[in-house]
Amino acid sequence: MNLLAFNKVDQMRFEHCVKDIENTGFRKALEHFYKYLQVLNRSENTIRWYLADNVLFLKYVEEEPGEKKLADLGKNDLRDFLADQLSRKISRRSLARRVSSIKNFFKFLIKQGCLESSSIIHIDSPRGEKKLPKVAAKEDLLDILKHHVPESALDRRNTAIVAFLYGTGARVSEMIGLDLRDIDFRTGLVSLKGKGDKTRLVPAGRFVLDRIKGWLDVRQASSEAVFTSLSGKRLTARHIRNILDAAIKKVSLNMRLSPHTIRHSFATHLMDKGVDVRVVQELLGHVSLSTTQIYTHVSMERLKAMYNRYHPHAK
């Protein structure tokens, strides 16, 4: 199995993830899987969840009577594990993700020749609960931008962050990874590096570009990253969440505003205005149209709510 060698940071992350697993065969297989996911350029979050889900399953197997090898595990072991998880009040959505993670692990083992076959890969995944995404009102987002009067350098940066998220629908990972060379101020196009290092071009309005320029004009530190601390270090996702938490306090918004909520709002507000779902798919960087179509349902729910509220014959 010709896979990447661990560097020190990767080794520490891996050891932390599998610290509860005692079976050396299980640990070795998980190590190969971890390296394989890195070769595929999966995100840190994806790798963490894949490992965590499989560690839970293999730890459950370890606690059962008798010593088992990976080749001994089958559908019944996975079903017993899922029943145990349900008894712990795990949501069906989390359960569906765990089944997917475990099936992918065993498919990998078969592909690499570690196993000849496994009945685990044929088990049906439970259907996850379909939750409609939370959406902030357009007026609330505009209020946040109005309250961020750009006086200090931090005010300018924070205004630019909110404007960029709402103006482009970017994922938080895409925003914090943004470099100066990714923005063409002449054409108004921004190059975003999405999942799996796939790059897409999205338009940014004049309002967004002006706010970014306002921040770049006053920041002291030199950096190729667009969104940085005052010392020039690239911001993290946690920094962005803290900035948004502070922003909503200024306008007394009665909901948690995360980067993903703003992304949902971007998509839903476009759908409300009649933008074609395939255009929204391209802007969001979704591979599958079905992922984007949830916003069709959100938009329809909002239309129904408005009808029920204002139409005289609705009640």
What do you see in this structure?
This protein has a 3-stranded antiparallel beta sheet, with no helix packed on it. The chain is 57% helix and 4% strand. The protein has 2 domains: 8-122, Orthogonal Bundle (DNA polymerase, domain 1), CATH 1.10.150; 138-310, Intergrase catalytic core (hpI Integrase, Chain A, Orthogonal Bundle). It is globular. It is mostly helical and 315 residues long. It has helices at residues 8-17, 24-39, 44-63, 75-87, 92-111, 138-147, 153-168, 172-176, 206-218, 237-251, 259-272, 277-284, 289-292, 294-310; strands spanning 183-184, 189-193, 199-203. The mean pLDDT is 84. The longest helix is centred in the first third of the chain and has 20 residues, at 44-63. Helix 2 runs antiparallel to helix 3 (44-63), helix 7 (153-168) runs antiparallel to helix 9 (206-218) and helix 7 (153-168) packs across helix 11.
